[in-house]
Amino acid sequence: MTQKVSGGLVHDLPGDLVDALVEKIEITRLWEDLTPIARNEFICWVEDAKQEKTRARRIRRTVEELAEGQRRPCCWAGCIHRTDKKPSKWQQAVLIDKKPRRK
């Protein structure tokens, strides 16, 4: 039987993340307790990984952070794909325009 797991506000839930979320029922419950926006942040964080090993690490961290009680990914500026709000100035400059940070 395939378990239905909720996605995010903008992003669909990728299969590899679903697999990690359904390994333990408690993690699935914690995931389902998140808001769609919070789930979206985790999904975007995973999807943003450039390398497969980074993606795998972020999936593992998602499960760990949920177990630790976190409701958003640690150290993530937020999804730039949302259309319900304008990206912050930081997101615009660093994530979208790819400008280097000031030293």
What would you note in describing this structure?
The chain has 103 residues and is mostly helical. Helices cover 50% and strands 0% of the residues. The chain has 5 helices and no strands. It has helices spanning 15-21, 25-33, 36-47, 52-67, 89-96. α3 (36-47) runs antiparallel to α4 (52-67).
Would you kindly provide a brief summary of this structure?
The chain has 103 residues and is mainly α. The chain is 50% helix and 0% strand. It has 5 helices and no strands.
> What would the average pLDDT be, to the nearest integer?
85
Portion in beta strands: under 5%
Number of H- or I-type helical stretches: 5
Number of strands: 0
End-to-end C-alpha gap: 53 Å
Helical percentage: 40-55%
Topology, pairings included?
Layout (H helix, E strand, L loop, with lengths): L14 H7 L3 H9 L2 H12 L4 H16 L21 H8 L7
Please name the defining characteristics of this protein.
0% strand, mainly alpha, globular
